[in-house]
Design goal:
Shape: elongated
Oligomer: single chain
Structural class: alpha/beta
Number of strands: 19
Number of helices: 14
Helix content: 25-40%
Largest sheet: 6 strands, parallel
Strand content: 15-25%
């Protein structure tokens, strides 16, 4: 995929609307202030922002934060994000109380070269989610072009994604470029053997990626709730384990049976490998731990892959030249059920070829058990990464394509 790039774009002394990827949760600390939980996405934006500053741009930062449902939610303001960005850039970042309006217009008009202003959470306005064109145009006030680094939101057709791109010349930022480049290496002739590891609780946002990558993959190792669906599809009793089996889309008036979908993938061949043993618990609030063969007894739930599975999966991973990992193998937040994710992380760390770890929970698990600096690429997106790997068109990326 060829995109319009920052280095090819005339940005010198321009006023830039920087669409960031700062959809980051916050936490309250002593004294009542809020801080960002994880500054990884802000750090990932620094290369782009420093390039803009060095080119004497005036920078207007735009983002949304979580789901305030079109109204002001004090805990979802962008003030913590502005403070974090200011500290990392080593310069002031002026925080606005809205993303449109007279005060915002004046602040943009008053910007000097190299200065940065951050707008308020765009999702405080209901017009954002419906890609209201008038609202999108207002978001671009006073700006010459859009530099789009919001890869984690590129699968959304919202006012702050596709909307702003309709109204101004635009290009991709360095962070977005890095995501597309790394993920494209997985879909286009990856070096073999290529191993995919998929875990996490839900299969609904991952099964299309599994299906799309099936032909280029050599092995697909599944754990967590994803494995439960595939095991159920194979006729294995998963006891009281969480299984996302049927989804009813009330808008499209259709039913999706994930177990049936998994059965169709299994019928394609033997690339999908389910656990051969599991670590289970009985009371999910205060579980007793036990290691069992793959059949889960009634009243018990699979909470991690077992040691035999960990060893087998790790051996396959270490023999790979390309690895993609999304989703922990179990409830890794509880040390009793973290061994599987730990073994996967240590195995991925030892791969000498391309390694991509995607998603917040997976990256958190990897940081806990391996040297994250040895991983080729950390994909900071969730749904956008999986939709890209599923071969779906991401609306914002389509608008950034080089003609």
């Amino acid at each position: 995929m060829k995109l319009r790039t920052l280095e090819e774009t005339d940005i010198y002394q321009k006023t830039v609307l920087y669409r960031s990827a700062y959809d980051i949760g916050v936490k309250q600390i002593a004294g009542g202030d809020y801080v960002v939980k994880d500054d990884s996405r802000i750090r990932a934006s620094l290369k782009t922002l420093e390039y803009l500053i060095n080119n004497e741009c005036k920078i207007v930062v735009l983002t949304y934060v979580k789901r305030p449902d079109g109204k002001i939610v004090e805990s979802l303001r962008t003030s913590p994000h502005a403070k974090s960005l200011s500290a990392l850039l080593g310069k002031p970042v002026r925080k606005m109380d809205d993303c449109i309006g007279d005060e915002v217009r004046k602040a943009i008009s008053d910007l000097k070269a190299g200065e940065v202003v951050m707008l308020e959470n765009v999702r405080f306005h209901p017009e954002e989610m419906i890609d209201d064109d008038k609202f999108a145009k207002e978001l671009t006030y006073g700006c010459d072009l859009v530099v789009f680094d919001g890869f984690p939101q590129a699968h959304r057709a919202h006012a702050s994604t596709t909307g702003i791109l309709r109204h101004l010349p635009n290009c991709a930022g360095f962070y977005l470029e890095s995501e597309v480049a790394a993920l494209s290496r997985l879909t286009s002739a990856p070096q073999k053997p290529f191993t995919i590891i998929i875990g996490g609780e839900k299969i609904s946002d991952k099964i299309d990626a599994i299906n799309n990558l099936y032909d280029v993959a050599d092995a697909i190792l599944v754990g967590g709730g994803v494995a439960n669906v595939f095991m159920k599809a194979k006729g294995i009793d998963v006891g009281s384990s969480f299984v996302e089996d049927v989804f009813v889309d009330l808008v499209r008036k259709e039913k999706k049976d994930w177990v049936e979908y998994a059965s169709k993938i299994l019928a394609r061949g033997d690339k999908v490998r389910v656990p051969v043993d599991l670590v289970v618990g009985d009371d999910l609030d205060n579980p007793h731990r036990a290691e069992i063969s793959v059949t889960v007894p009634a009243g018990w739930a699979a909470l991690d892959i077992g040691p035999l599975t960990s060893d087998a999966f790790s051996k396959t991973i270490k023999q790979s030249k390309t690895v993609f990992w999304n989703g922990p193998m179990g409830v890794f937040e509880d040390d009793r059920f973290a061994a599987g994710s730990g073994s996967i992380a240590r195995a991925v760390e030892q791969v000498s070829g391309l390694t991509v770890i995607a998603g917040g929970d997976t990256i958190e698990a990897a940081k806990k058990y391996c040297d994250i600096g040895k991983i080729t690429h950390l994909s900071l997106a969730g749904g956008a990464t999986l939709e890209f790997l599923a071969g779906k068109k991401l609306p914002a990326l389509e608008m950034l394509r080089k003609e």
